[in-house]
Each structure stands twice: as structure tokens, then as C-alpha cells.
């Protein structure tokens, strides 16, 4: 027999008929035990199904009420002057390009900035930067940090990616795509780590670096060898 409501109704009708046909002093236990068990089993299953459906319905109604409440709260928040969208800044360094001009050969990267901070309004910028300009940014911030009375509150400036063994010793290697593309990723990591600290994020030097077409290069006094980007790289790209 199939486990559906029609079968159970038929079995229940048959059980009721059998009970009516029995003398008044006949006990229900005298009915076919297998048939009674089958009816009870099916009834139990139907009850479980109906119970599950009911629980599901209650859950859907509860979720609907929660959603409606959230929509109401959000609507009130949007219309309220107290509501503030979380501020953010995202910077990507990409698209390394080889440039050859009267000054020599070097690589430029596209630095794209998206931000909701008022200091970065209107919020979308794309500028070209050489590696030496990243060096200058770090050098200028470090000088400002040392001169600040709250220098200890500024946090440590992250290191720049330095030259690799190949780029330092193999002529022309630093212009190969495998090197410049990896450097773009490393510079993206550098600038986003730098911006995690408000003192650097809202500093005028940083804002100019990310938003102005031109950024003055102030070369650091210290030159270092490959493998360490603490002060500057030996590369002057």
C-alpha cells in the first residue's frame, strides 16, 4: 500500500466498519492486528509529515517577519541623518608598462584608487607611478613620522618590495613581465598595508600620491642591495 492520505482514509473506514459490526462487548484488539498496525503506522507518518509542514510554515513566517522588520529598520536608517555608510579605500597597482624616453628606460604602473573617504572625494582615481615614486612616498612619510611628536602612534611603515637576485644581477631582467607583474602585486600589498593606519591614510603626501597626476620624487639618502625594501631598492626605476 502507498503511504498516502487516501489509503489511510480507506483503512480507517474499514476499521470503523469492523468495529460497528462487532458486538458491543467485542474489543478492538480482536480486529486484524496487522491491519491495525498498518493504519497506525501510516497515521503516524502522516502526522509527522503534517508536523514537518507546519514547522516549515512557521519558519517561513518567522523569516518573513524578520525580513520585514529588517527592511523597516534599514528604511528608517537610510532616512535618518544618523546613518553612515562604512567608509573604505581600495588601491590596486597593475598594468606595468615599459617606457623609453630621453631619461632612459623604466616601468610605470597604473595605480587605481576607489574610496568613500571625504579626503579622497570624488572617490575614483587612476594615476601612473614609477617604482621610484613609491620609494619617495615611503621616504617622505618616514621623515614626517620622525618629526611628529606622536611618532610612536603612527605605526611601522611597511617595507617596499626590493630587487630579487635575478633583477639585481641579470641586466634587463627587471623589465621582464614575470618580474614587473609580480612587483605590481607586491606594490598593491605595500600600499594597502600602509593605508591601514589613519596617520598614513589621511596624510597629505599619501593623498597626493594616490590622486594627483604628478608626484614629486624625493630620492632617499640610503641605497640598499637586493632583498630588502626597508629604505629603498637599488633600482631607480
Automatic annotation (TrEMBL):
Highest taxon of source: Eukaryota
GO biological process, alphabetically ordered: autophagy of mitochondrion; endocytic recycling; piecemeal microautophagy of the nucleus; protein transport; reticulophagy
Topology with respect to the bilayer: Peripheral membrane protein
GO CC, alphabetical: early endosome; membrane; phagophore assembly site
Originating organism: Entamoeba histolytica HM-1:IMSS-B
UniProt keyword Membrane, yes or no: yes
Primary residence: cytoplasm
Protein name as annotated: PX domain-containing protein
Record's subcellular location: Cytoplasm; Membrane
